From TrEMBL:
The protein, known as: PadR family transcriptional regulator
SUPFAM superfamilies: Winged helix' DNA-binding domain
Chain ranges of the Transcription regulator PadR N-terminal domain: 16-89
PANTHER family reported for this sequence: PADR-FAMILY TRANSCRIPTIONAL REGULATOR, TRANSCRIPTIONAL REGULATOR RV3488
Length: 122
């Protein structure tokens, strides 16, 4: 399945902030985590991730630090800032509303609420 560019772009910030909420990470590991979480359906490129990380850092949502990788070249590690925690909480609330609406308008999903709403039980 191909995920449309608009949906990928809309989810990019909350996905990255959510991954960093689990702990600091670096670019390649973030890309691997996105692929793992999506079962390979979302295959982000470096060209998508790094501009986003730079923007999130410029906005103060993430902080970064260069570190020497064991036996390798330096890696830039990113972590969620205090401000980023607030942004993530806000984004989660917004996406929960969107997910709730989609659950209600798409019948047959795992949280199919149409019959309950039709009966006034929802």
């Amino acid at each position: 399945m191909r995920i449309g560019k608009d949906l990928v772009a809309a989810a990019a910030t909350p996905v990255v902030l959510g991954i960093l909420a689990d702990g600091e990470s670096y670019g390649y590991a973030i890309l691997q985590r996105i692929s793992e979480l999506s079962g390979g359906e979302l295959a982000w490129s470096d060209g998508m991730l790094y501009p986003l990380l730079h923007r999130l850092e410029r906005l103060g949502h993430v902080e970064s630090e260069w570190r020497q990788a064991p036996g390798g070249r330096p890696r830039k590690h990113y972590r969620l800032s205090r401000q980023g925690e607030g942004v993530l909480a806000d984004q989660r609330a917004q996406w929960n509303v969107v997910a709730s609406v989609l659950d209600q308008v798409w019948p047959g999903g795992p949280d199919d609420r149409r019959p309950r709403l039709a009966l006034g039980m929802g």
